[in-house]
Automatic annotation (TrEMBL):
Coiled coil: none annotated. This is Amino acid ABC transporter permease. One of its GO terms (cellular component) is ATP-binding cassette (ABC) transporter complex. It comes from Parablautia intestinalis. It is found in: Cell membrane. The chain crosses the membrane at residues 20-40, 52-72, 84-102, 184-204. The keyword Transport applies. It is a multi-pass membrane protein.
Length: 215
């Protein structure tokens, strides 16, 4: 296989990888915030449910979660799985990463001084206004390095989509390598992943600098 053809096929796999990455962040970041609210709730039942959810998501392999999310509808309800592969991948990745993001959010929110809330109350802010206008922007600034680490990990974890036969970049690289009996496709995939991670890290660094209030 020519180098151009190999890179073209890897590029197609890269598009799938980017889709998994983008959609996972789109759903898991807000879901993680909601889960963190439940984790900090005064309602013991809600707190217990969210704690159990986080424990399961963080305590079991993502690969296993992908298989369960994909095959469970068939084995439990006999549903047709046609067209469900990609949505199942996004769902599994999103609920997995939401658990990690929830703990990051919780740590950031818990680190805020009580005086921030008291000052907002004196100024007449409601609880929602206090959180979204005062607390959350400061929390995001504090937790951004941790979010960046998880985001970079997500780029590499997208390769786990191969267990559901999703043709992302790593799967394409393995198929080409097996066909051509060459390590070159895997090395090229490694370069693709490195560039992807470099771009993500650069973008997150720019966001972090933009949120630096002391510049």
């Amino acid at each position: 296989m020519s180098t151009v053809t190999m890179l073209t096929q890897l590029g197609k796999g890269m598009i799938s990888t980017a889709e998994i990455f983008s959609l996972t962040l789109l759903f898991s970041l807000p879901l993680g915030l909601l889960v963190s609210f439940g984790r900090m709730s005064r309602n013991r039942l809600l707190q217990a449910v969210t704690r159990f959810y986080i424990t399961i998501m963080r305590g079991t392999p993502l690969m296993l979660q992908l298989l369960v999310v994909y095959f469970a509808p068939y084995y439990l309800f006999g549903l047709n799985l046609r067209g469900y592969r990609f949505p199942a991948i996004i769902l599994a990745f999103s609920i997995n990463y939401a658990a990690y993001f929830a703990e990051i959010y919780r740590g950031g929110i818990a680190s805020m001084a009580v005086g921030q809330y008291e000052a907002a109350q004196v100024l007449g802010y409601s609880r929602l206004q206090t959180f979204f206008k005062i607390i959350l922007p400061q929390v995001m600034k504090r937790i951004l390095p941790s979010i960046t680490n998880e985001t970079i990990t997500l780029v590499k974890d997208t390769s786990l989509a191969f267990v559901l036969a999703q043709a992302e970049m790593f799967t394409m690289a393995k198929q080409i390598a097996a066909k051509d009996t060459s390590m070159m496709p895997l090395m090229a995939a490694g370069v693709f992943y490195y560039i992807f991670n470099f771009v993500v890290a650069f973008a997150m660094e720019r966001i972090e600098k933009a949120m630096d209030y002391y510049r």
